[in-house]
Amino acid sequence: MTAEHQHGRGVLDTNAVIGLPHISDAGVLPAEPTITAITLAELSVGPLVASNQAERGRRQAHLQQAEADFDPLPFDDAAARSFGQVAADLRASGRKRAARAYDALIAAVAISNGLPLYTANPGDFDGITELEIVALPVPGTSSPSHPQSAGADQ
């Protein structure tokens, strides 16, 4: 399901965290944004797989900013149970969950906390029935091969 309105609290997908500096209208974000521990894990891969020092520094800055700005939601027992349904939904829709493992885990945390997920890549979550998606207009992050997360997704 895709929502068009602002919520009180919502989970930012990794691409939304990376794209925050490029969002010109704060009204498209939840009033109380949060992230998941999975996003921190995904961001932590970025500096380690960067192809050069400049990119490594940029990715490290994203990670450090996210660590400073957010108290992430954990992947806990409720998220683990939600993940079972997410994986089943992805299989039923013909998508392999391993291809988008971080996304599936982030979705499970959002579902288990009853929160919508704000993302620049809503198609990454197609087929996940219980997840409420809010599509974000984030310039430069609409591709699954975004430089920050490309290494993390491999």
The H/E string reads EEHEHHHHEEH
> What topology, given as strand order, has the largest sheet?
1-5-4-2-3
Q: Identify low-pLDDT runs.
A: 141-154
- Give the termini separation: 28 Å
Determine the mean pLDDT. 86
Rough outline: globular
**Taking Cα atoms only, what radius of gyration do you get, to the nearest Å?**
14 Å
Helix fraction by DSSP (H/I, runs of at least 4): 40-55%
Largest sheet: 5 strands, parallel
Give the strand tally.
5
What portion of the residues fall into strands of 2 or more residues? 5-15%
Number of helices: 6
Question: What structural class do you assign from the helix and strand content?
Answer: alpha/beta
Short description:
With 154 residues, the protein is α/β, with parallel strands linked by helices. It has helices at 14-19, 37-49, 53-69, 77-92, 101-112, 147-150; strands at residues 2-3, 9-12, 32-34, 117-119, 133-135.
Fold and architecture overview:
The structure is a single chain. The protein has helices at 14-19, 37-49, 53-69, 77-92, 101-112, 147-150; strands at 2-3, 9-12, 32-34, 117-119, 133-135. It has 154 residues and is α/β, with parallel strands linked by helices. The chain has a 5-stranded parallel β-sheet with strand order 1-5-4-2-3. Helix 1 links the parallel strand 2 and strand 3. Helix 2 (37-49) packs antiparallel against helix 3 (53-69) and helix 4 crosses helix 5 (101-112). The radius of gyration is 14 Å and the shape is globular. The two termini are 28 Å apart.
